[in-house]
Amino acid sequence: MIVRHPLIVTLRNEESLREALPAKPVHRRLWSQWLTNHQHALTRIRFAEGFPAGARNDNLVDASQRVGPSFPLSYPTPAPYTPDMTDRDSPRPKKPRRPRAPKAPKQRPPAETVDSAQRLFLAVPLPEPVVTLVDTMSRSLQAEEWPVRWTAPGNAHVTLHFLGEVEPERGQLLRLALRSVIALHDRFDLRTADLGVFPNMKRPRIIWLGLYGPAHRLHTLRDAIGDLLVSFDFELAEGEFHPHITLGRVRDARKSRVRDLPAAIRARLEAAAASGEVTHKEPIPVPVDEVVLVQSHLGKDGPRYEVLERYPLRAAES
């Protein structure tokens, strides 16, 4: 049924609707267009007892002649169709605008003060040849134009523990306690290996440069530091520890097209491994001779790292 004030057009079924179309093709097209543009004014109701019977265009009846309960005309009133209409004159109702959700304010890091909590982590620093390799590999992979946020070469490191936000007093006590624990471990060397991803190739989120060598010694050092952190009521990250250097992180999947990214990353990493591009055949040494306590300063251009303390490992006896 088409509701039009002050007229009520009653159409018994879809067939009646089509029979009501004008005979001329141009008028039929305009009438169909009018109906299409006014779907919001259409509604189906049963033909109530007491309505005057009619057919086709005779279905136009004055609303005052209707017998029965009143019908609320809550729909907007479309302009009536006339045979001399043109496409430009065809009535087109304005679509109601949906209210826009308010934009969330940008969360900018608060200004740091002396009493502000410090964002800290413990890591193994990298020698200059490895930093150069990270820079070379990052530039090479950036040419693929993947939706990845790449790590600045100067910020590359081997993370041991991420501490999060730490109060200055608590951080100062930790700085004093770390030295004696780390000094109990001998220095050793790791070596660069091939590229890889976390958590897996089907859902890559982190692209990294691998390390191999006496990794068990790095595990031992990390576990000893972890025991100290637990005594200071720090929560340790769950999951198995894999020594690596983070090259980049895949951006938010909801904002990026990442459907074909796993296959592209797999192909690129396999090509790099086959060609020895990542020095698998000529690895670069990564000496583990100290651990650094680093504060991360967040900014609009990315994090800036500041080394707060250096803790040397024990030199091997000659």
The tally of strands reads 12
Tell me roughly what share of residues is in helical segments: 25-40%
How far apart lie the N and C ends? 99 Å
Which CATH first-tier class of the largest domain would you pick? Alpha Beta
Summary of the model, kept short:
The chain is built from six helices and twelve strands.
Describe this structure in words.
With 318 residues, the protein is an alpha+beta fold. The chain has two domains: 1-94, no CATH class; 118-312, Cyclic phosphodiesterase (Cyclic Phosphodiesterase, Chain: A, Alpha-Beta Complex), CATH 3.90.1140.10. The chain is 25% helix and 23% strand. It has six helices and twelve strands. The strands form three sheets. It has a five-stranded antiparallel sheet with strand order 5-9-8-7-10, with helices on both faces. Helix 4 packs across helix 5.
